[in-house]
């Protein structure tokens, strides 16, 4: 298998073309000339393919959230990634940028709430964070988080908050809590006889 074939999955797009058309039509209806001006450089097929690429991985609930936001926005989204961010914001799941911000707060103050997904991702980039700093770690965090987020949504999971595991109770030995058990008289007698035979008697 060639190197190019190994990367093909990263470019796979399975977002429904019909839904991309519906999103673009709604944008065109709401923003008219502004929409035409922003996307005038694209042929219809190119714009449709771009929309499918940018919106790939979003759920119906995500698209509905983006459409609802768009209905109340005065200005046309500056580009399709902006519309995607509208789809992702305010949902049940944190966006990658929100998760990163919360992760950095958690680093400063471990009592800050953090989701399980954000915590797992933070641990995966901790080495990058320690060695190369926040900028490099931020890029890695976003990529990893978005991949995990896509998988979680596809699996129908819901966002869960991380809870610090309770420390295991350790069984300590404290001399003060030590209690003695009296030795039975018959055993004391046997020990005494053995001690005398060994020459330990007085």
Query: Approximately how much helix is present in the residues?
Result: 55-70%
User: How large, in whole angstroms, is the Cα Rg?
Assistant: 32 Å
Instruction: Report the total helices.
Output: 11
| Largest β-sheet summary | none
* pLDDT < 50 runs, ≥5 residues: none
Describe the structure.
It contains eleven helices and no strands. The N and C termini lie far apart (90 Å). Helix 5 crosses helix 6 (80-88). The mean pLDDT is 84. The protein is elongated. It has 202 residues and is mainly alpha-helical. It has two domains: 3-88, no CATH class; 96-154.
Outline the fold blueprint.
Blueprint: H1 3-7, H2 17-31, H3 33-38, H4 44-55, H5 60-72, H6 80-88, H7 96-108, H8 116-124, H9 126-132, H10 134-154, H11 185-197
Helix pairs in contact: 2-4, 2-5, 5-6, 7-8, 7-10, 8-10, 9-10
Brief description of this entry?
Helices cover 61% and strands 0% of the residues. The chain has 202 residues and is mainly alpha-helical.
Kindly list the characteristics that best describe this protein:
mainly alpha, 2 domains, elongated
